[in-house]
């Protein structure tokens, strides 16, 4: 079956295509080259004249599956009670504004033109749950970054001074066993330190039991990811999240990895200074400067937007410290399996609250001061800064200076006065939005056949009607195709398909590391190593999800 | 079925016990399953329960699977309010059931929800600080068991997590302190290897709410004027709070099913508040035990699919949570539900007796005091099929493996077939 998308304005930054009118052809779920010369018999044609075409959007950091999301659901029945979604058409029922049920999550993403989302905090021990939940997210490709750095096996290896090779094998074994595509570290060592009653752990502070520092952990893990050839750099949720003055820690973290690739996630929460009467100020300019100067660094923003949400994080140490801000006043912290932890704290960002309003400014300042859209990604750290459904609004804030300044005029005047936001003229272009939400994300994760519209790409495609109101434009695409199937028409789901699970499988010495791991599991864990490992059948046997393995550097 | 070759499986996870022991050695000889090593009364009963019924029955008469499925589909189409309960089952079965419940505008209620809600209502009202079994195994230095007996429902709890030979941090586990607050242990498993017995601070079950409230108040630094609380000297409770503060990693555990008195969630909440208060000075965590008969599995899957952990009704086309009105027992007693669909593949627990027409998709071997209208005997996840289950701490899901070919249908397939037989939703 040959499909043709005729006459759309195509934005395909991976190929330098910036709004050129082109025809696209799709066969067997893939984009194919223009079939010149052949007897072209198009089975189905979509008139895209006057419309904007991009590849399907990719959310590279969104908490859509795993234990902490379900804890958030159970913590906040009102989040679901206040936002019920009735069964309608092809869509099953669901609920939830900030921690929506899985089915609803998939429908909402697809209806906005997203075709992939990556869960950034997969605890190794909870990876099975993350995959089971994501298997119930329809229409969306998924993948996960598996969390290391506060697990006792790693900390024991690091503190015993083993060769980097052994660390690399363990990192590779974990990414295989958890069926993930990247490695994440959250408050390096801090989640473990909290179990020993340490209440903070700065970059060069020692873990009281293991004697290692966050800096050492970051160096070891960035090196492991790099040497294993995993495309996505180490995904770092740094120390001191949310602490005024943490800008210094963040800048030191950047210099600490000595040029190795590193991704700093939800950077907004790590860009706070201590200037001014309230000892809370924007560090955006310094962070953007560091980002612009260090080509090894990428960031996603973790923009906050005003309203009720819930913060769900692996960072039990910082979430515990922030529990006094819980709104409503209830929260969960967990220590988890000598592996990790989590903290779930509901939060209401208010535009008249000085700190919240300045957080809003800081995120936008970082977006607008970062020069290279290939190294910055559009996220709200869903649901921590705001639910992902706010993305069209966020895109408008970035693309429409008048709209942005109108909003700026409504927030806490004290915060607005301390921000440079009003003086920044930059407006993102459609091409830059396509980089941040598609091409750049695919490149960062090593998804060779996603995020672009060249021949051979998977036909994940979104077609919008160009509008001045970019929020409206990005809220309701005309068409969304997933692997060549039309799944959304005029913002309505017209077909249910199930996405792929994106993974990497770096090479490593399995026998070597398992000779250490097996006795470790037998002695200290509560399950056998063989039962910890997630096998392919566990993901694929229901006939819905399919595992895709992307090559690491050096692999064919 | 004459398979004379005995096969032996190692490291088999048990879907039957809430702590998901996964070190069982099991032999399968034809249809006969035997636990060779590491069995306990719960897992042996779970694995060794024999297959009996093989054919579906309608009004007591054997019928084809297709006939049974079509009958159930018609029943559901005619039903005003079907209630689905049981759910001693695995992840894929809960998933398939929730799809059918959504389609048929039914109600979902796990059979142990009444107990589970004593924890879930606390979670949704104030939250908690909790831990998991491996943290317990490696870190705990003071364990307080509140109002519960552990070794009856969790026979291997102490062996696996308290008197383990070694810990990650070099602790001498034989020095671990065990305190029973409220209830005395039913056996001697909490006795340390060196013969040291646990401390028991007894009180009547009826006094547990009072004791918990006093304990919480003391942990929060308040003074209590009374000399005794529920018969326990206030000084004893003060001493216990102080011991938690002096510990590195105290854990308070309970089995909510045993806190069988009205509004026990308020009592659980007091203990959780105490834990939060202790954490101002040291680390301390809750470990709500449970997980038997698939209760955690059901609540996890329900939560991610519907947004709510149990007692979810799709009456209006969208999920609604009502911990009181959507209890299956109440709906049946008061004649609000007109159809009971009982799905139970792990346990042979039969459905409650009711005058309402009853459909059972259940483990072969289930015995009924009153023959249900329809019975479809099915295989067991973890014996006849692969699958997944959650253990009590909600974090760890274990894979379940197929050990034999029982020749019985899979409940998830049956449930999907029923939904298919119902046809598309009429709009």
Looking at this protein, list some descriptive labels:
heterodimer, A: 556 residues, TIM Barrel, 20 helices, 33% helix, 23% strand, B: 427 residues, alpha/beta, Dimethylsulfoxide Reductase, domain 2, 5-stranded parallel β-sheet, 12 helices, 31% helix
Percent strand of chain A equals 15-25%
Q: Biggest chain pair contact, residues each? A: A-B, 71 and 68 residues
Might you state the CATH topology name of the largest domain in chain B? Rossmann fold
Number of helices of chain A: 20
Strand order of the largest sheet of chain B: 5-4-20-19-18-6-7-16-17
Question: Whole-number average pLDDT of chain B?
Answer: 96
Q: Major beta sheet of chain B, specifics?
A: 9 strands, mixed
Total individual domains of chain B: 2
Oligomer: heterodimer
| The top level CATH class name of the largest domain in chain B | Alpha Beta
By CATH, the superfamily of the domain at 57-445 in chain A comes out as Metal-dependent hydrolases
Number of DSSP E strands of chain B? 22
Number of helices of chain B: 12
Helical/strand content category of chain B: alpha/beta
CA gyration radius of chain A, whole angstroms: 23 Å
- Which fold name is given in CATH as the topology of the domain at 57-445 in chain A? TIM Barrel
Return the structural class of chain A: alpha/beta
Average residue pLDDT of chain A: 97
Number of E-type strands of chain A: 26
Instruction: Give the biggest sheet of chain A.
Output: 10 strands, parallel
Q: What's the architecture of the domain at 57-445 in chain A in CATH terms?
A: Alpha-Beta Barrel
């Amino acid at each position: 079956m040959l499909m043709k998308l005729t006459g759309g304005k195509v934005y395909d930054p991976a190929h330098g295509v910036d709004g050129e009118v082109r025809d696209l052809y799709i066969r067997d779920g893939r984009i194919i080259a223009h079939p010149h010369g052949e007897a072209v018999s198009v089975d189905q044609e979509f008139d895209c004249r006057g419309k904007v075409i991009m590849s399907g959007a990719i959310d590279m950091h969104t908490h859509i599956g795993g234990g902490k999301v379900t804890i958030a659901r159970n913590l906040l029945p009102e989040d679901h009670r206040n936002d019920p979604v009735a069964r309608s058409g092809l869509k099953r029922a669901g609920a939830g504004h900030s921690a929506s049920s899985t089915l609803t999550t998939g429908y909402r993403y697809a209806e906005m033109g997203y075709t992939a989302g990556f869960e950034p905090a997969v605890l190794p021990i909870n990876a099975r749950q993350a995959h089971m939940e994501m298997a119930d997210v329809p229409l969306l490709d998924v993948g996960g970054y598996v969390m290391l750095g506060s697990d006792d096996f790693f900390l024991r290896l690091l503190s015993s001074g083993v060769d980097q090779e052994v660390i690399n094998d363990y990192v590779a074994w974990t990414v295989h066993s958890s069926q993930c595509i990247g490695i994440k570290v959250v408050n390096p060592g801090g989640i473990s330190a909290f179990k020993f009653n340490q209440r903070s752990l700065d970059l060069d502070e020692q873990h009281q039991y293991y004697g290692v520092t966050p800096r050492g952990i970051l160096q070891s893990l960035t090196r492991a990811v790099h040497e294993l050839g995993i495309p996505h750099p180490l995904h770092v949720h740094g120390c001191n999240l949310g602490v005024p003055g943490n800008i210094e820690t963040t800048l030191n973290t950047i210099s600490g990895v000595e040029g190795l690739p590193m991704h700093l996630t939800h950077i907004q929460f790590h860009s706070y200074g201590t200037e001014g009467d309230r000892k809370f100020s924007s560090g955006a300019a310094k962070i953007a400067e560091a980002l612009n100067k260090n080509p090894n660094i990428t960031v996603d923003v973790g923009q906050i937007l005003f309203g009720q949400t819930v913060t769900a994080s692996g960072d039990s140490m910082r979430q515990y410290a922030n529990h006094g801000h819980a709104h409503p006043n209830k929260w969960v912290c967990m220590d988890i399996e000598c592996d990790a932890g989590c903290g779930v704290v509901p939060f209401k960002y208010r535009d008249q609250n000085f700190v919240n309003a300045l957080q809003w400014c800081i995120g936008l300042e970082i977006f607008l001061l970062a020069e290279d859209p290939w190294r910055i990604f559009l996220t709200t750290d869903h649901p921590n800064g705001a639910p992902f459904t706010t993305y069209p609004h966020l895109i408008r804030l970035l693309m429409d200076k008048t709209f942005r300044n109108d909003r700026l005029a409504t927030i806490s005047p004290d915060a607005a006065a301390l921000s440079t936001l009003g003086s920044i003229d930059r407006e993102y272009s459609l091409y830059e939005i396509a980089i941040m939400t598609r091409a750049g994300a695919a490149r960062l994760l090593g998804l060779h056949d996603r995020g672009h519209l060249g021949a051979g790409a998977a036909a994940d495609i979104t077609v919008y009607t160009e509008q001045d109101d970019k929020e409206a434009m990005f809220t309701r695409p005309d068409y969304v195709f997933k692997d060549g199937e039309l799944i959304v028409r005029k913002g309505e789901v017209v077909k249910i398909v199930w996405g792929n699970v994106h993974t990497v499988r770096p090479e490593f010495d399995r026998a070597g590391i398992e000779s250490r791991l097996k006795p470790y599991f037998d002695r200290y864990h509560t399950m056998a190593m063989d039962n910890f490992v997630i096998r392919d059948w566990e993901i694929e046997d229901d006939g819905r999800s399919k595992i895709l393995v992307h090559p690491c550097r050096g692999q064919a | 079925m004459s398979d004379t070759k005995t096969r032996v499986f190692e490291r088999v996870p048990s879907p039957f016990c809430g702590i998901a022991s996964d070190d069982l050695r099991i032999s399968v000889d034809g249809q006969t399953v035997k636990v060779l090593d590491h069995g306990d009364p719960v897992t042996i009963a779970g694995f060794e329960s024999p297959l009996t019924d093989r054919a579906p029955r309608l009004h007591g008469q054997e019928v084809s699977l297709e006939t049974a499925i079509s009958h159930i589909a018609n029943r559901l189409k005619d039903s005003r309010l079907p209630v689905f309960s049981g759910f001693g089952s695995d992840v894929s079965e809960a998933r398939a059931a929730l799809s059918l419940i959504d389609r048929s505008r039914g109600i979902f209620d796990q059979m142990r929800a009444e107990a589970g809600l004593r924890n879930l209502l606390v979670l949704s009202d104030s939250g908690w600080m909790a831990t998991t079994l491996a943290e317990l195994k490696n870190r705990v230095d003071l364990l307080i068991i509140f109002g519960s007996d552990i070794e009856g429902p969790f026979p291997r709890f102490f062996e696996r997590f308290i008197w383990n030979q070694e810990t990650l941090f070099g602790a001498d586990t034989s020095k671990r302190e065990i305190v029973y607050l409220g209830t005395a242990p039913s056996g001697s498993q909490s006795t340390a290897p060196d013969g040291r017995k646990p401390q028991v601070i007894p009180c009547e079950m009826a006094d547990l709410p009072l004791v918990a409230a006093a304990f919480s108040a003391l942990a929060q630094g308040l003074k209590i004027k009374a000399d005794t609380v529920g018969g326990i000297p206030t000084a004893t409770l003060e001493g216990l709070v102080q011991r938690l503060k002096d510990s590195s990693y105290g854990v308070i555990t309970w089995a909510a099913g045993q806190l069988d008195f009205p509004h026990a969630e308020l009592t659980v909440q007091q203990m959780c508040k105490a834990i939060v208060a202790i954490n101002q000075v040291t680390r301390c965590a809750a470990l709500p035990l449970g997980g038997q008969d698939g209760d955690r599995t059901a609540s996890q899957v329900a939560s991610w699919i519907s947004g709510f952990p149990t007692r979810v009704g799709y009456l209006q086309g969208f999920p609604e949570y009502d911990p009181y009105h959507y209890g299956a027992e109440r709906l049946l007693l008061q004649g609000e539900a007109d159809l009971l669909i009982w799905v139970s593949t792990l346990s042979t627990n039969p459905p409650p007796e009711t005058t309402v027409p009853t459909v059972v998709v259940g483990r072969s071997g289930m015995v009924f005091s009153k023959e249900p209208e329809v019975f479809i005997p099915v295989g067991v996840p973890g014996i006849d099929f692969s699958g997944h289950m959650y253990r009590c701490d909600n974090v760890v899901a274990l894979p379940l493996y197929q050990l034999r070919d029982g020749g019985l249908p899979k409940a998830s397939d049956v449930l999907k077939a029923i939904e298919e037989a119902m046809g598309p939703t009429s709009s």
